Amino acid sequence: MLVAAAMLPLAGCSALPSIVGVLSGAAAGGGTASPAVGFAVGIATATATGVAVKYYGKSRQHAEQEVIARLAGALPIGGRAPWRIRHYIPLGDEDGEISVLTDIANPLAPCRSIAFSVRDDRSQRWYTADICRRATGWQWASAEPAVPRWGYLQ
């Protein structure tokens, strides 16, 4: 658990599962004097770490999409508002602006097309998405982002 907490700042690093796998495999292999045990532990640890990192990223993505959809659903057409997410682990908190572009005619559920921005230290980039109202409120309806860079909010 302590090792996982120490490596949390590296969670965005795509090499994290490999690094953790190599370190745990080396420790297990050295501790048991068996390269086969070290290899097996390294592969298992790398796989588990990769799954955990993906799950964590997807849960953060879902939380960000929920905030954007909920705020955009409450706005009128043409309305604008700021958005912000504060994650439980405050690494990679996001903020920006939302604008509701138009309603989308849909016989299944009321939907809207929105534009939203994500700010970083140097710029503010804009993306488009669709949201739809369900029984539980407004939810993200876009399957893909407007551009590939959008990463975890995809």
Question: What fraction of the residues are assigned to beta strands by DSSP?
Answer: 25-35%
Cross-sheet strand order for the largest sheet: 1-2-3-4-5
Largest sheet composition? 5 strands, antiparallel
**What overall geometry do the principal axes of the alpha carbons give?**
elongated
Question: N-to-C terminal Cα separation, in Å?
Answer: 29 Å
What does the average pLDDT come to? 77
Number of strands: 5
- Percent helix: 25-40%
Number of helix segments? Answer: 3
Sheet/helix structural class: alpha+beta
Low-confidence stretches: 1-8
Alpha carbon gyration radius: 20 Å
Write down the secondary-structure element order: HHHEEEEE
Brief synopsis:
The chain has 154 residues and is α+β, with helices and mostly antiparallel strands. The protein has 3 helices and 5 strands; from the N terminus they run αααβββββ.
Descriptive report:
The protein is elongated. The protein starts with a helix and ends in a 14-residue tail after the last strand. Helices cover 40% and strands 27% of the residues. The protein has helices spanning 2-6, 16-32, 35-73; strands at residues 80-85, 94-104, 111-119, 124-134, 137-140. By secondary structure, it is α+β, with helices and mostly antiparallel strands. Mean pLDDT is 77; it is low at 1-8. It contains three helices and five strands; from the N terminus they run αααβββββ.
Keyword list:
154 residues, alpha+beta, five-stranded antiparallel beta sheet, 3 helices, 40% helix, disordered N terminus
